[in-house]
Structures are given as C-alpha cells and as structure tokens.
C-alpha cells in the first residue's frame, strides 16, 4: 500500500496542461497511488483499476461502501470495445450524442479485468469526459481510470480542487488543480443492461434530453 504523507498540489491549465504534470499523475497512479483531478462535471478521485490494492484504497479513503461500483474514465472511444464485448445500439447512439460529456453509460460486463471496480456486479460504468486532463492522464497510464467523486462519502461532490483538498488532504498523493469544474454537477448515469434503458442517477443531462435522443428511458 502506498501511504500519502503530504498531498502534492499542481496547478494545470485546463486547456493545455503541462505534460510534466500529466506524466507526474500517471507515475503516481502506476505506482498504486491516488490522484484527484478535474473533470467536466466535478473533481474525481482516481486510481489504476488494474491494481486491486489501489482500488481498495479508494474505498477506504472515501469511506465508500464496498457494494458500490466505481466508474471508468476513458481516454477515447476506442477503449469502450476494450472493456465490453456487447454494446447495444441505443448505447452507441447515447455515446455518439453525449460524449465527450456528462453521461456515464452502464453496460454489461463480466470480465476479470474490471472485477475490482464492479463491486460484484455484472455491469460497468464508462464515461468519456469533456475535459482534456483526465483523458490525457488515462492515455499516459495506458488504461481507463477507476473513478468516483473526490469527496468523503455523504459529503458534497467538489467542483474545485480546494473543495477536494479540504476533504482528502493527506489521504491522496496528488491533486491536479485546473480551476472550477465547468459543469459543477455530477454526471447522469444510465444503464443499458435494461431494456428500455433506465436512469440510475439524475445529473447534468436531463431525463427529458435523454428521452429526446433515445426514446423511452425508464426512471429509477
């Protein structure tokens, strides 16, 4: 287990982040550490999902129930097919319409590669954020990033690095500060493991907008 003695904070430009900061984040993650970084919605707490001990640390640091899965932040669309084999046409339509953006798409998945983040479920949540920082970090890590909002469970999801640091200082190795998250509302979560698709969490994209694009979407 990698212990966080003092949290390092690096300021990064949200449009053109310093490659050295991106590489530093990737090094921390590949070493089993935890990183807080910006997304388009809120700040996220991430680790390398291929390292089960790092995944366990996210749950411990956040105080998150072990039966709640983590989502994966992607580098690009090509990583979807690397994570799941079956992608319904409605899910493809949602990704085409709302990605990059504030929609987490839940698909069926039973692969060993994602077992640590699925919390015993047969589905996985995927998102391609509309923010260059997490996409670049995922690209440098060479894998999607296991992710949850950068707050202690039960506390508000932070829209700024300062908000995340107040809750997680000393518990994570690195924070990338790119200023306020643009949307400041958590992503909408929709599962395509159900037919018709079902809304699991209301968020930045409204149910009305989902229905406009996808047709029937059930409420949770």
Architecture overview:
The chain is α/β, with parallel strands linked by helices. The protein has a single domain, classed as DHBP synthase. Helix content is 31%, strand content 19%. A ten-stranded mixed beta sheet has the order 1-8-2-3-7-4-6-5-9-10, sandwiched between helices. Strand 2 and strand 3 (44-47) form a beta hairpin. Helix 1 crosses helix 6. The longest helix is centred in the N-terminal third of the chain and has 12 residues, at 19-30. The radius of gyration is 16 Å and the shape is globular. The termini are far apart. The model has no long low-confidence stretch (mean pLDDT 95).
The CATH topology: DHBP synthase
The percentage of residues in β strands lies in 15-25%
Q: Assign the CATH architecture.
A: Alpha-Beta Complex
In total, the number of domains comes to 1
Number of helices: 8
Helix content: 25-40%
How do the SSEs run, as a string of H and E?
Answer: EHEEHEHHEHEHEHEEEH
Uncertain parts: none
């Amino acid at each position: 287990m990698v212990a966080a003695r003092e949290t390092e904070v690096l300021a990064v430009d949200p449009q053109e982040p310093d490659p050295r900061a991106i590489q530093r984040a990737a090094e921390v993650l590949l070493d089993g550490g935890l990183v807080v970084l910006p997304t388009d919605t809120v700040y996220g707490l991430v680790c390398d999902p291929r390292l089960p001990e790092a995944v366990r640390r996210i749950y411990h640091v956040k105080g998150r129930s072990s039966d709640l899965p983590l989502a994966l932040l992607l580098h690009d669309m090509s990583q979807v097919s690397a994570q799941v084999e079956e992608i319904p046409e409605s899910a493809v339509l949602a990704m085409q319409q709302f990605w990059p953006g504030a929609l987490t798409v839940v698909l069926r998945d039973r692969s060993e590669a994602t077992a640590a983040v699925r919390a015993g479920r047969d589905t996985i949540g995927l998102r391609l954020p509309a923010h260059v920082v997490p996409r670049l970090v995922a690209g440098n890590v060479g894998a999607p990033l296991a992710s949850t909002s950068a707050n202690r469970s039960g506390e508000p999801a932070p829209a700024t690095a300062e908000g995340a640091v107040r809750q997680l200082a000393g518990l994570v190795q690195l924070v990338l500060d790119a200023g306020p998250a643009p949307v400041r509302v958590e992503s909408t979560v929709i599962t395509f493991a159900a037919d018709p698709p079902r809304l699991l969490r209301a968020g930045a994209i409204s149910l009305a907008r989902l229905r406009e694009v996808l047709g029937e979407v059930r409420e949770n």
